[in-house]
């Protein structure tokens, strides 16, 4: 993991900016009445990378374990389903027919013709009026 920010005060580098150069953001230290940029702690990239690699390895192991567990549960469910179908074939057919019937009813309700538009009669009257005026011209 990356190092956490510390709350302790750091010594300030007051020699950072020179005349004519842009002034970087600085920290005002009220205890010493000085302004400057805090010195950055040297971080070792190799340590950070090795910590990240360890975390990735741990995550890969957890995902692999979860996948094996899910596969085992799916295999158990499949075996139980097959055993239930072998023990009760007629009941299974009745349940499958009921589920198919429920899907057919739901699909049939969605295939209803669209409801008549509320202002359809007014639109029809306007079209008739437009046709009659066009025929006169």
Describe this structure in words.
With 137 residues, the protein is mostly helical. It contains 3 helices and 3 strands. It has helices spanning 45-87, 89-110, 120-136, and strands spanning 12-13, 27-29, 34-38. The protein has a 3-stranded antiparallel β-sheet, with no helix packed on it. Strand 2 and strand 3 form a beta hairpin. The longest helix is centred in the middle third of the chain and has 43 residues, at 45-87. The radius of gyration is 38 Å and the shape is flat. The protein starts with 11 loop residues before the first strand and ends with a helix.
Question: Could you give a short description of this structure?
Answer:
With 137 residues, this protein is mainly alpha-helical. The chain has helices at residues 45-87, 89-110, 120-136, and strands at 12-13, 27-29, 34-38. The protein has 3 helices and 3 strands; from the N terminus they run E-E-E-H-H-H.
């Amino acid at each position: 993991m990356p190092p956490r920010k510390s709350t302790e005060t750091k010594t300030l580098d007051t020699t950072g900016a020179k005349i004519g150069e842009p002034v970087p953001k600085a920290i005002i230290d009220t205890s010493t009445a000085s302004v400057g940029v805090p010195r950055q702690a040297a971080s070792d990239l190799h340590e950070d990378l090795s910590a990240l690699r360890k975390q990735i390895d741990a995550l890969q192991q957890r995902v692999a374990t979860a996948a094996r567990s899910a596969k085992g549960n799916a295999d158990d469910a499949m075996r139980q389903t097959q055993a239930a179908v072998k023990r009760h074939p007629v009941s299974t057919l009745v349940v499958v027919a009921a589920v198919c019937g429920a899907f057919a009813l739901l699909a049939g309700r969605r295939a209803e013709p669209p409801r008549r538009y509320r202002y359809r009669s007014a639109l029809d009257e306007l079209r008739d009026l437009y046709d009659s005026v066009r025929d006169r011209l």
